[in-house]
């Protein structure tokens, strides 16, 4: 009888239970780490899509165009204006002085009127205009009418589930038909857009009565229901690379301005479910939310597949953000979160780890944008406490610094554009549990390496991508790109610095179908039996209404 076949699992179990670091299990055996990687992966994919969305002008003023028709010339001796509350006589005199005493045609008068209108805009006043009424010019005297518009009413259009009172609550609406403050209106709209998922744009429209200007606020709402189904090979080799998943997003769950998300994923040895909810706190610029994540994993391939290596984890997170600073090109969000996680791993039915983890985060996110570029950075300070209930010792309490940065750049009207991403983690603590360790590798990290292949206590990674847009094939848009990834991980093991380079192709087609493919070459050898090339692909279908 081959007793060694029976004794081998027993020996391995003894080694694993006596020292959790004596024999490293595959990453898929750590459910908390797996749960964290899944959430980070989908967040990274979402942030890459958002980088390509540009903020548009929030207020669209109506342009005044003069009649360019020519007429007879005359010497302009004087210009008279109707009463103005916005210009001093000296300001108006400075505009018309270059035209006085000269031979003048209708085109010259239109040019002068345009200069007055430009002066209104220089005062950030878009509801006032200078008009050249039809008249008989006598003695070289011209009359210019100044129509300094007053505020009529505010109209909200385009919204189906975002409540009118909620939109109006964000916007300053002066009473008694005062002049419109365009700067204040733009500031209010930007604050709304940076806290909410819906987007506002204001238009100025002639009111019911002469001299009145209405503010028309157009609400661009995201689809209230959005479903995405996907099939990919982003998974872990030890629990099944092929995955199938679904994401359901709902806008206006309870209040019309909140949102919810359900995420489910399954592979041969892994099942994950996440529920997320977030809502603004009225018009305070605060947003509060929470999430529940559940993960169950089992090693189904590799050297440990016969040892019944299983794991499960549950985490609850509460988070808050506050728009602290908001300018047209720069804004800052203050961030905070609290997380509690339970995670257990067993071999042959015996627990080798049973962690309770608590984590508090505070920090800020900065976003800075310009014409054709955007830069975002986030810095968090965390306090972590861990307790391994399956061991007599090993409790840890430590500080953790984490941060990330992303950038987008398109030169002028070029079809070329670039993406940049970076993230890091730092701590003085050693031998961190999987839920808070630093892991790289996979379709959104160092892409030449399998997910979870490289992990440690702290590290840094960055990615550069060059894209080309404007191509079409099979009825859809093509997005070819080349990339370079590099990172470094530090732990008790030797420092590892993986690098990868490769090419990718995105295709967004008709009826909601999309394909994303990446072919990456590992430029540094981390493990002797690692693959030199890694191919990732995701097929997705999206539907919304």
From TrEMBL:
Residues 1-22 form the signal peptide. Keywords: Cell outer membrane, Membrane, Protein transport, Signal, Transmembrane, Transmembrane beta strand, Transport. Its main location: membrane. GO terms for biological process: protein secretion by the type V secretion system. Residues 74-149 form the POTRA domain. GO terms for molecular function: protein transmembrane transporter activity. It is found in: Cell outer membrane. GO terms for cellular component: cell outer membrane; type V protein secretion system complex. Belongs to the TPS (TC 1.B.20) family. This is ShlB/FhaC/HecB family hemolysin secretion/activation protein. It comes from Halopseudomonas pelagia. The lineage of its organism: Bacteria, Pseudomonadati, Pseudomonadota, Gammaproteobacteria, Pseudomonadales.
């Amino acid at each position: 009888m081959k007793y060694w076949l029976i004794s081998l699992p027993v020996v391995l179990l003894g080694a694993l239970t006596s020292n959790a670091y004596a024999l490293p299990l595959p990453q898929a055996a750590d459910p908390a780490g797996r749960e964290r990687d899944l959430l980070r992966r989908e967040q990274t994919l979402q942030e890459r899509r958002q980088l390509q969305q540009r903020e548009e002008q929030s207020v669209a003023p109506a342009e005044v165009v003069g009649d360019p028709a020519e007429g007879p010339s005359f010497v302009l001796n004087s210009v008279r204006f109707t009463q103005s509350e916005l210009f001093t006589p000296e300001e108006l005199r400075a505009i018309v002085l270059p035209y006085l005493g000269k031979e003048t045609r209708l085109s010259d008068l239109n040019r002068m009127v345009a200069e007055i209108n430009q002066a209104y805009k220089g005062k950030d006043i878009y509801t006032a205009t200078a008009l050249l009424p039809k008249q008989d010019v006598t003695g070289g005297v011209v009359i210019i009418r100044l129509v300094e518009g007053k505020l009529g009413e505010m109209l909200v259009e385009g919204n189906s589930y975002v409540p009118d009172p909620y939109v109006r609550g964000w916007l300053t609406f002066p009473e008694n038909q005062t002049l419109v403050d365009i700067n204040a209106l733009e500031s209010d709209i930007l604050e709304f857009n940076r806290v909410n998922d819906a987007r506002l744009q204001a238009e100025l429209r002639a009111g019911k009565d002469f001299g009145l200007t209405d503010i028309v606020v157009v609400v661009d709402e995201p689809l209230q229901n959005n479903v995405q189904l996907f099939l990919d090979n982003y998974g872990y080799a030890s629990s099944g690379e092929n995955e199938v998943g679904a994401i359901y997003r709902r806008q206006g769950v309870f209040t019309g301005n909140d949102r919810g998300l359900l995420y489910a994923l399954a592979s041969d040895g892994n099942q994950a479910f996440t529920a997320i909810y977030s809502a603004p706190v009225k018009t305070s610029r605060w947003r509060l939310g929470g999430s529940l994540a559940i993960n169950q994993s089992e090693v189904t391939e590799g050297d440990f597949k016969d040892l019944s290596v299983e794991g499960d984890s549950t985490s609850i997170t509460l988070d808050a953000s506050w728009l602290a600073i908001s300018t047209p090109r720069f804004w800052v969000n203050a961030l905070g979160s609290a997380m509690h996680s339970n995670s257990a791993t067993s071999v042959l039915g015996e627990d080798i780890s049973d962690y309770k983890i608590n984590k508090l985060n505070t920090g800020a996110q900065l976003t800075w944008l310009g014409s054709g570029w955007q830069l975002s950075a986030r810095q968090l300070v965390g306090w972590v406490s861990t307790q391994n209930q399956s061991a007599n010792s090993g409790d840890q309490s430590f500080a953790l610094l984490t941060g990330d940065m992303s950038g987008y750049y398109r030169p002028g009207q070029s079809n070329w554009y670039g993406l940049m991403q970076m993230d890091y983690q730092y701590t003085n603590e050693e031998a961190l549990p999987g839920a808070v360790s630093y892991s790289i590798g996979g379709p959104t990290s160092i892409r030449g390496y399998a997910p979870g292949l490289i992990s440690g206590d702290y590290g840094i990674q960055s990615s550069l991508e060059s894209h080309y847009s404007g191509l079409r094939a099979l009825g859809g848009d093509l997005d070819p790109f080349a990339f370079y990834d590099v990172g470094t991980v530090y732990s008790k093991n030797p420092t590892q610095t993986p690098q990868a380079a490769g090419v990718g192709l995105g295709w967004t087609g008709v009826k909601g179908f999309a394909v994303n493919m990446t072919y990456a070459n590992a430029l540094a050898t981390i493990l002797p039996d690692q693959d030199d090339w890694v191919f990732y692909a995701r097929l997705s279908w999206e539907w919304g209404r």
